[in-house]
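Aggregate trends can hide what the representation actually does to any particular protein. This step matters because it turns folding into a mapping between discrete strings. For completeness, the protein is quoted in full, as a sequence line and a line of structure tokens:
=====
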Amino acid sequence: MNLASTLHWAAMVLWLTYEECMLMYFTLNHHPSSVSLIEATSIHDDNSLNYIRASVDLAKKCRLLAYKLFGMQKPLPDIGPRNVTELTCEQL
């Protein structure tokens, strides 16, 4: 096992903290001009999702600005299953 594969393996087992996860975002707008988004032919075309995802960058940047102005929101407690119809907020 060489050094490159060792470093790659080490990077895969490290977990990000909650703060690091909240400060990350992915954008489809960061690409060279030779590689652009494929034009969508209709709203039912799968490529139309990329146009929607590319247009929400402003909302992502506003979320990061809100973290700087108002602080990071508290993480949700991991006390049970989510999205279960039998549980309600009052039972937790």
About this structure: The chain has one domain: 3-70. DSSP finds four helices and no strands in the chain. The chain has a mean pLDDT of 76. Helices lie at 3-13, 18-22, 48-55, 57-70.
